[in-house]
Structures are given as C-alpha cells and as structure tokens.
Amino acid sequence: MRRLQNVCLTVAVTALVVSYAAWSSLTATTTLGTSSSASRLPLGDLREHSTVCHASLQDQRTFLPSNNDSSLPTIFFITPTYPRREQFAELTRLGQTLMHVPSLHWIVADDNPECNPFLTEIFQKFGLPFTHISSPMPSNYRKRYFVPRGVSNRRAALKWIKANAASGVFYFGDDDNTFDLTLFSEIRDTKIVSMFPVGLIGEFGVSAPIIEGGKVVGFFDSWPADRKFPVDMAGFAVSVEYLLQHPNATMPYKAGHEEDQFLKSLDLKMSDIEPKANNCTKVLVWHTQTVKKPKHNLKVPESIFSNLRTLLEKLVSLGVVQMGAEVSGKEVYMVVDGHKNEVTKRQVLGLS
Ligand SMILES: *[C@@H]1O[C@H](CO)[C@@H](O)[C@H](O)[C@H]1NC(C)=O
C-alpha cells in the first residue's frame, strides 16, 4: 500500500514538473510576429523568438560616478552582440566604459538561441543595471546575400523598452565601437532624436549631419543609397517618450537600410533633429572593428598543467578557441628558455 502511494506521488509530481516545464518554456519565449515584406518565405523560419535571460534594475556598482544623480534621465544603451571569438573581450571593454556613466541601463541582446550564462555572469560583475536578452536571428534571414545583422536583437531590446520604460533616452551602441564619455552627457537630454558624427565610417572616414544655423540640412556619408537619413546606427539617440508615441515604429530586416527606415517609421522630420557634439563638429563615437581571425582548434594533450587546463576550458566556454586531441588540431607547446617544450606535466617534471 505504501509503495503504491509512493508511485502515485511520483507520477503526480512528475506530471506537475513536466507541465510546469512546458508552461515556462511557452511563456519564456515571446513571438514578436513576422515581417510582411518576406511573407513568401516559409513562415516558421521567419518567426522571432526572444527571451529575457536576466534583468537587474539595481545599480550595484562599487564605484559610482560622482554625478550619479537619480533624477537624471536614464540612458538605455542597446548592444546587439553575437557569439564569436572576440565577444567576451569586446563586452568587457564596453562594460568598463559604461561603468563610468551615471544613470544607465545596459540592454545586451545576444544573437543566440540560448541564454549564455557566462554573459549574465560578466554583466553582474560590472554592477550596472542590465537586461540580458537571447534574440536569435530567424534562420531565413541568415541565408540572404546581405544578412540583416543585429536586427532581431535591436527589435527585442525595443520591445523590452516599450514594456518596461516610460522615459529616458535610448541609443544603439555596438560592442566593438569606441565611445567618448562626453557622448552620454550630450545625448541624455534628447527630446525627440539627436544626431552627431560617427568616425571611421565608409570611404569618407566619417558619417555626419551637416549643420547650418544650428539645424541639420543634410548628411555627409559616402553611401547615400537613396536614404533620407543616411546615418550610422551609432549616430543618433531617441527619446523613449517619442518612441512610445509611435507604437508602429519598427526596424526592418533590411541590411543597410535599418537606420533610415527606423527613423522614417518614427515620423521624423529634418527640423526635429537635435544636433549634438558642438553642432556636429566633434567625433564622440568611433566605428572601430576588431579584425576577425578564425577560431583555432588546439590539439591539447590529456595531461597538462592544471592552470592551463582551467584557462583553456574557460576560453572554450567563451567561444575563443576550440580544443581537442584530434590530429588536425594546432600543436600547442610551452616555451622555456626560448625553446618549445611539450606541455604535458610529465615532461615538465623532467626539466631541471
Ligand atoms: C550651434 O549653432 C547655433 C547656431 O549658430 C548656435 O546658436 C548654438 O549655440 C550652437 N551650439 C553649440 C553647442 O555650439
């Protein structure tokens, strides 16, 4: 009798756990809808799924900027990122820039179907308020000749802002760009949309609004492409209130035209634009890029120094290297007195 009771209990508990798991996976994944422009493609592969992996609203920085006035409008700094060799290096550098900025909420949306726990971990270390989102690009867009990178991520971040913010300013800052801290005090009082130069863009070396009498009259950009607003993603900031007043504003999956079409969808007029950076005479953001190198596959023997094992395993989990014992892998070695040595422990003990 007792055994039967136990079995019944186990069955009931299992059923509960299974249905909870099914329910939570349903609620954790939000479908944002599909783009009409690509409706001839199979629907399933265009569907957006984004998950808020972790959100922390508390400012837990150990060293707060001296001007961390809580009455300052919040800057929502939106960073699309994606798994690659350089991801953690870039986010470490950017996070430590953002640590200097008062009243900032960092939204990092990863082009990754999984919530990478190592990302949540480094964001917690910075102490900044942050939201970590998993927002993989729908697979069909990946097959396009011009892949609309970062769009699913920015769309997911905008969705989070619409659901969670009532005021402040948002800005799209890529993980590999370089930001002058002055940029943040410049954009913080954006009423509608502010604009400013971005260095290292295109064949002109810069993309910038052209100003006359304190107003934007045109743009300096080497890729016009029939765009009304030929600006870089890092070249403008938008008021959250203004976004909320335009519920249909959206960023299309159209490589090269995301900025222009997003700004058009906000009903932006040239006369609304607020020039920043001393009437667009200064570069406060640079479109730096890390040159991409392939991820190497290292041929690592079983028995190696424990610190090296720990270090390499960490780098594998961060996506920097691959490691295995396959013949095809790149030989690794230890340098002692300028000479290559085997990296196995046994070998080392033999050294005098
Ligand atoms: C920008 O130019 C306008 C018009 O010349 C001027 O009134 C304004 O003070 C300038 N702003 C800055 C920050 O220099």
Ligands bound, unique: 2-acetamido-2-deoxy-beta-D-glucopyranose
Q: Provide the CATH architecture of the largest domain.
A: Alpha-Beta Complex
- Whole-number average pLDDT? 86
Q: Give start-end ranges of low-pLDDT stretches.
A: 16-41, 347-352
Span from first to last CA?
70 Å
Kindly state the percentage of residues in helix. Answer: 25-40%
Radius of gyration: 24 Å
Give me the side-by-side strand order of the main sheet.
1-2-5-4-3-6-12-8-13
In percent terms, what proportion of residues is strand? 15-25%
Q: Spell out the CATH superfamily of the largest domain.
A: Spore Coat Polysaccharide Biosynthesis Protein SpsA, Chain A
Which structural class fits the helix and strand makeup? alpha/beta
The shape, in one word, is globular
**CATH C-level class of the largest domain:** Alpha Beta
N-to-C series of helices and strands: HEEEHEHEHHEEHEEEEEHHEHEEHEEEEH
Number of helices: 11
> How many structural domains does the protein architecture include?
2
Please provide the count of β strands: 19
Biggest sheet architecture: 9 strands, mixed
Describe the 3D structure.
This protein is of the alpha/beta class and 352 residues long. It is built from 11 helices and 19 strands. It has 2 domains: 248 residues, Spore Coat Polysaccharide Biosynthesis Protein SpsA, Chain A (Alpha-Beta Complex); 53 residues, no CATH class. 30% of the residues lie in helices and 22% in strands. The strands form 5 sheets. It has a 9-stranded mixed beta sheet with strand order 1-2-5-4-3-6-12-8-13, with helices on both faces. A hairpin with a 2-residue loop joins β10 and β11. α2 runs parallel beside α3. The radius of gyration is 24 Å and the shape is globular. It starts with a helix and ends with a helix. It binds 2-acetamido-2-deoxy-beta-D-glucopyranose (NAG). 2-acetamido-2-deoxy-beta-D-glucopyranose binds next to α9. It is an enzyme of class 2 (transferase). Belongs to the glycosyltransferase 43 family. Keywords: Glycoprotein, Golgi apparatus, Manganese, Membrane, Metal-binding, Signal-anchor, Transferase, Transmembrane, Transmembrane helix. Its cofactor is Mn(2+).
